[in-house]
Write a structure and sequence with these properties.
With about 260 residues, this protein is α+β, with helices and mostly antiparallel strands. It has helices at about 25-40, 70-85, 140-145, 200-215, 220-225; strands at about 5-10, 45, 55-65, 90-95, 110-120, 130, 150-155, 170-180, 185-195, 240-250. Strands 1, 2, 3, 4, 5, 6, 7, 8, 9 and 10 form a 10-stranded mixed sheet that branches. A hairpin with an 8-residue loop joins strand 2 and strand 3 (about 55-65). Helix 3 (about 140-145) packs parallel to helix 5 (about 220-225). The protein is globular, with a radius of gyration of 19 Å.
Length: about 260
């Protein structure tokens, strides 16, 4: 069966997450239903990351096997037709080798977290960013984030429900930028790693918000990491602001 890689964009608000769940809407189910409208015998699909309820994506990658040899452009068009009106879109499709695996072939995943600080409520960005009413100290957050880059035991920053075999991960980079928005500032947290633990990004951003608000010193992030204790973590940020933006492979299937 020919194998295809799909680049997928979605608004996570209506879904219980990426992964198929009994009795609850999922992004995986939406895409698989569209695939089976084209090929009734299509097997299930695998994705690069299992995003949680409410988390968005602009660069999720999944692979699928189909009986028919599709032109990738026409495959993407057909899937988008069957995905309507759900907030899910195939932005690219490509034929890949039979041993390509969206999850296990990935070399790096990249997440963006958007936080908007302004007194006025969010209108157009409601559900797409974490809204705070107070500004944050960018320099302090960058200093705190510096303690997390590298290879560490991230027990403090993972969910108690995390099923990963080890809490040790290498965080390649955290970049934090600020962008003016009407009435306030947007803070963008860009994180890169080969893989992440469950709730790791949201735990990190929630902790750095405490630093930016002045409730924590930057050095307390280092102490929290060293504690290897979930109780030492700051609050977990809401899912609204989190996006899976890119997955990198040795050979980019989308060119």
């Amino acid at each position: 069966m020919p194998r295809y890689a799909l680049k997928i964009e979605y608004h996570g608000g209506p879904f219980a997450g990426w992964q198929r769940q009994s009795g609850q809407p999922s992004v995986q189910e939406a895409v698989e239903t569209a695939l089976r409208a084209l090929d009734a015998g299509a097997p299930g699909i695998a994705a690069a990351g299992r995003t949680d309820a409410g988390v968005h994506a602009t660069g999720q990658v999944a692979h699928c096997d189909l009986a028919r040899d599709w032109d990738p452009f026409r495959l993407g068009e057909a899937l988008n037709w069957h995905l309507k009106p759900q907030p899910v879109a195939i932005t690219a499709a490509a034929r890949v080798a039979d041993d390509f695996h969206a999850r296990f072939s990935a070399l790096e995943r990249r997440y963006l977290f958007r936080l908007i600080a302004r007194r006025a409520p969010l209108t157009h960005e409601s559900g797409l960013a974490w809204h705070l009413r107070h500004p944050l100290d960018l320099a302090a957050m960058r200093q705190g984030a510096g303690h997390l880059v590298g290879n560490h035991d991230f027990t403090t920053f993972r969910s108690s429900l995390c099923q990963a075999a080890s809490p040790v991960k290498t965080l390649d980079a955290i970049a934090i930028a600020e962008v003016p928005v009407p009435g306030g500032t947007e803070y963008r947290f860009d994180l890169r790693a080969r893989s992440f633990l469950h709730n790791q990004v949201r735990s990190i951003v929630g902790t750095l918000e405490r630093v930016g608000s002045g409730a924590w010193s930057p050095d307390r992030v280092r102490s929290a990491l060293a504690a290897r204790d979930r109780a030492a973590c700051g609050p977990v940020s809401p899912p609204d602001g989190l996006y899976l933006t890119a997955v990198r492979y040795r050979d980019d299937p989308f060119g």
